[in-house]
Description:
By secondary structure, the chain is mainly alpha-helical. It has helices at about 15-20, 25-30, 40-55, 60-90, 90-95, 110-130, 135-140, 145-155, 160-170, 170-180, 185-205, 210-215, 220-225, 230-250, 260-285, 290-300, 300-325.
Amino acid sequence: MEKDQQTIKDAVPLGWVDTRAPLGWRPYLRLARYDRPIGFWLLVIPCWVGMALAHLTRPWEFYDVTLALAFWVGALFMRGAGCTYNDIVDRDLDAKVERTAKRPIAAGLVSVNKAWIFLIAQCLVGLVVLLILPPLARGVALGSLPLILAYPFMKRITFWPQAWLGLTFNWGVLVAYVAVAGTISTAALLAYGGLFFWTLGYDTIYAHQDREDDALIGIKSTARLFGRHTKTALVIIYAATLVLLAFAGISETDAMGDTSRAAMVGGWLPTILFAFFLSEQVSKTDFNDANACLATFKQNKVAGVSYVIALALAPFILRAIETMQ
């Protein structure tokens, strides 16, 4: 394989980046992870959760379509910017790990200076999206910057970089909730906590791919920390995810008339659906098989989107139930 066509081990095989994108663009598209779209989905899903949660007690409006698309575009470009920044910081470490050695900067396909220019260009698109948001939501969004800037260094100083990623990747639930509701509520904070544990779980599974290489070069992770106790740890982590998300929905529906019915449809039913996917991850994954870990990690797209849809449909289900009675 020629140097300009090297692909990352966990990229989508023969995806559009490697088959249809112009050759000169490919290293930059790989740098922004367009050949690995799962990370984009895991960034935009919390935004849509925040919107759906806020709309449990508020009607959907046409503006919400614009807002959902804005979060989609923002997640696309800011995930790319975050990955570019991460690879600039981690270029020496990436070269020592089999799975990441072909990343564009580590492989010498993109210079550090050009990577910085590419990073700035992506951030400018993110700035346009930021300006679409209401003023308070903009302020909340800017609050994530310290988390983003510190993230690449966490694997060097703590066995819990996955926890830091959870704080960072799910900030969108607060931004989106504020964009719709105009304030931060207990429900939004509970959802942020629940999604934090979700990320802690799925990124622990992802980190098992590099467990041996990480140990050799001194990179820390919860995969190394939990080791053979990973399954037990995930049971606890995902239980926390489900309890917090259920109570987020219940808290948001407290203002509705029939609180028990609203709590069931808005809190428990979406969470039970989510629980099905998470339990499959814990029970069926071989954490010593890198390919199995990657496949399980990617399943979180379906899990997260399914949860968003269930949460967004909850008010309509409630209305249908009331109409039938």
